[in-house]
Amino acid sequence: MKDQWNIQGVLNGQDQHLQDQLEIASEILLSEIKYFTPVDEGNLLSKNQKEIIDKKKIKVFNNAIYAAQREWGGVITAKKAKMLSIPIHSLSKGKEPGDFSDLFIVKTDKNIFLAQKIGKTDKSIKYLFVLKKSVRQTATPFMRPGLESAWPKIQKALK
Predict the structure, then answer these.
(1) What pLDDT shows up at residue 108?
(2) How many CB atoms within 10 Å of residue 25?
(3) Residue 85 lies in a domain
């Protein structure tokens, strides 16, 4: 009976060691993913997280609703309006057309813009937004490069 308790104690120690190693690995991975996460938009950076699945697994993920779109790219289509308004000027970055009271539409052969007058002449305008029914967003991976970068560091840390 005494030997049985000793074996259980060793096994519990191994479980704790494994969990400690998983914790180290997940922290390295989160750090590397953070490095590759595009930070010029939304809350993507703050949504990198980890979850303990069991004694042998930790899941590292990003739970921002647009994380997969960012990681893999794809088409974005207007849902709440007829068209997407895409900021194209430093004055409109992080804003919506409704934030401006004096916008007007300018149509060209290829695009539709929302613009704003500068000064008193009709020729002085700033193009603030371009309107599109959909856009193809190129992938900006951050999870995959984070994993690739973290893997050798994890191996080194766990030796």
Answers:
(1) 93
(2) 20
(3) yes
